[in-house]
Design brief:
660 residues, alpha+beta, Rossmann fold, 3 domains, 6-stranded parallel beta sheet, 12 helices, globular, disordered N terminus
């Protein structure tokens, strides 16, 4: 794993320093004082200089899983008067100086298996002076120099331990970790390039290019081929790869959206906002000794830089590991550290003689009665014992599994309870949220897909052009980012009004705002909202003639379809769409929990989402073509009834589980 400059910059942004970070730049590699960048002619003789080197990217597959690697931390400290490389335990104990050299040794990068450390040093050699790449064992022994006479920076390992990439003299280099060949210059570019990081599958290198005020994200293959530019606006500060092979971008300049941190696929698609304090553990986790997933970061909070762990498991969120008056920074830990899959297997083995399965439901909310009703419906069909109660009580009663009602606002507060349940062999199925906590499975719709699909419907119906307003009450579901991406995709759409607050739950103000929108922009073609859609409808109603109605979203509830029918009676041309977050997720989760504790294995290919822990369900969509059918289905229900769609038990088993 790369030395974590990335984490320091990320946390600085979340402490209201984002604007400063966006205007600051990463250190530019210093110019070489002895030589120019290496060229293809300088490649090792074993490499055909007429083509790129052929690089093996295969990862050895052991016949038996290796034991978990402890998350030891290599870091840089000047506590001995100059910069040295230290190693300490995951709890900050027993720091050891590994380099003990009067020169400056910095930028440690520990290998994926924790056995070796690459670092940068300016110690003199017989041939020249400058910053060179070195490698040593994790105990400081067997020191080797891998580069010479180029100004090296930012080392990063491949997960198979075969390669190290680094920047030097404004280019990106690759070198074998055994030192068998000289470093290969992969870019030879006139642009300033740096901060290379190798993907977890050892197939790609992501890096920054442009320098000064214009850093952008690029990728290329390990042999330097297939160079791709993924961002264009400049202002990036740092990058890394997430566990699941996505690119984490820090300080991304999104123009009028400001300075933010994002995650995107390796091809630049499906951009997701990375979140704020404590959120980076979703993508680049550090594991404590007791198995908690947190962040590790170098940060200056009190006049000098320290190494911190960040997470809700700590009383004050931040746990200072170094507590030293010197500057301690650039933490790095093994990519393969933490609990193994085997040590935290969530399947609860049930003997054939055990006939009683007990499943609990926690987080009961009177506003979401349908979820509890669907839970009880599944329990009745399965003829099993089910209990509704608080999470702590359900854990104490040793139920076989817990269905945890939640959402993406409160899910982080469930972290310690999920860990407690995990440690007692109780899997937790979290509804309507994506928890990163080890011990949880998530059952939810894809909220970003929901937003993208509804916006796509609206923009296509608008003819891809026209004035547009929106209300976004769900930034916690990443909708702000999706709105920005869809507007980029449809440049003919002009945003004339937007709201990102919740009106302190006084949604009547929405109606007044909608009226002002229509008066100020009589040609407005569409108003999108991800909540309280009826208030948009009542705001438009009576403000414009029936034939001049803009496109709107309708609520996926009985009252929402009633409003749809009222407007449609006055204006047969009225067009709307309703997309539901079905409460049937509780039904689906109950069957999934039952299958799991009955001995079925969840199919790894069915798991997806931010953390690879989510089982997505489809969401019902009501359109002009099927509104009458849906109305017949729900017209006898109560006013708050939400359009629902349950998966069949067989479909749940076939889509999410392996055969016994």
């Amino acid at each position: 794993m790369n030395s974590k400059h990335l984490f320091s910059l990320f946390v600085l942004c979340i402490f209201s320093l984002c604007l400063v970070a966006c205007n600051s730049q990463p250190p530019v590699d210093s110019p070489s004082i002895t030589s120019s960048p290496a060229t293809e002619a300088a490649l090792p003789t074993s490499v055909n200089v007429t083509s790129r080197p052929i690089i093996s990217t295969a990862v050895p597959q052991p016949t038996e899983p290796p034991p978990p690697v402890p998350c030891m931390i290599a870091f840089e400290s000047d506590r001995d008067g100059n910069s040295e490389i230290y190693m300490m335990g995951p709890d900050g104990k027993d720091p050891v100086n590994l380099t003990n050299n009067p020169s400056d040794d910095n930028q440690p990068a520990i290998s994926a298996d924790g056995s070796q450390i690459a670092f940068i040093s300016n110690r003199e050699t017989e041939t020249c002076v400058g910053q060179s790449l070195y490698i040593m064992n994790a105990d400081g022994g067997d020191l080797r120099q891998l580069s010479n006479c180029i100004w090296a920076n930012s080392p990063n390992w491949s997960t198979n331990g075969e390669w190290i990439t680094f920047s030097a003299d404004g280019d990106i280099f690759l070198v074998r970790s055994d030192g068998a060949e000289d470093p290969i210059n992969l870019t030879n570019s006139p642009d300033e390039e740096g901060y290379p990081v190798i993907s977890p599958d050892n197939q790609k290198i992501a890096f920054l290019s442009g320098g000064s005020q214009n850093w952008n994200v690029f990728t290329m293959n390990l042999d330097g081929s297939d160079r791709q530019q993924l961002t264009t606006k400049g202002g990036e500060i740092g990058i890394d790869w997430s566990e699941d092979g996505r690119i984490v971008v820090v300080g991304w300049n999104r123009g009028d959206q400001g300075c933010c941190n994002f995650v995107m696929n390796a091809d630049g698609s499906e951009i997701v906002e990375a979140g704020g304090k404590g959120e980076m553990q979703k993508y680049l986790p550090f594991w404590t000794l007791d198995g908690n997933r947190v962040e590790c970061v170098g940060l200056d909070l009190s006049g000098n830089s320290e190494i911190y762990l960040v997470g809700e498991v700590f009383p004050d969120i931040f746990l200072n590991l170094t507590n030293n008056p010197a500057n301690d920074t650039n933490p790095s830990w093994p990519a393969k550290c933490g609990p193994s899959i085997q040590s935290h297997n969530l399947e609860v083995e049930q003997s054939q003689e055990n006939t009683e399965i007990i499943i609990g439901f926690a987080g009961d909310n009177p506003w979401e009665q349908q979820r509890k009703d669907n839970f009880l419906k599944a329990c009745d069909e399965l003829k099993i014992k089910c209990i509704v109660g608080e999470t702590e009580a359900l854990i104490e009663q040793r139920v076989n599994a817990i269905i945890q009602n939640s959402n993406n606002i409160i899910v982080n507060g469930l972290h310690p309870l999920i860990l407690e349940a995990r440690d007692k062999g109780i899997p937790v199925f979290v509804l309507d949220a994506e928890s990163s906590t080890d011990g949880a499975y998530n059952i939810t719709i894809d909220h970003q897909k929901w937003a993208a699909k509804s916006l796509e419907w609206m923009f296509e119906e608008m003819g891809k052009a026209g004035e547009f307003a929106f209300f976004n009450f769900q930034s916690y579901n990443g909708h702000k980012l999706i709105i920005g991406d869809m507007l980029d995709k449809y440049p003919g759409i002009k945003v004339v009004e937007q709201r990102h607050d919740d009106y302190t739950h006084d949604y009547k103000i929405m109606e007044a705002d909608v009226r002002s929108f229509m008066e100020k922009y009589p040609n407005i073609k569409a108003i999108w909202a991800n909540g309280e859609m009826n208030n948009v409808i009542w705001g438009v109603k009576g403000t414009v003639p029936p034939d001049d109605w803009p496109l709107v979203m309708c609520e996926a509830t009985k009252s929402g379809l009633e409003a749809w029918n009222i407007v449609k009676a006055e204006n047969p041309g009225f067009n709307c769409v309703a997309m539901s977050n079905p409460p049937g997720i509780a039904y689906d989760a109950t069957y999934a929990a039952y299958y799991l504790v009955s001995g079925f294995q969840i199919n790894p290919d069915a798991l997806s989402g931010e953390f690879g822990k989510t089982l997505y369900v489809d969401f019902p969509i009501v359109t002009q073509e099927n509104i009458d059918e849906w109305w017949e289905t729900i017209k006898k229900e109560n006013e708050k009834y939400l359009i629902d769609e349950l998966m069949s038990p067989d479909d749940i088993k076939d889509r999410w589980f392996l055969e016994k």
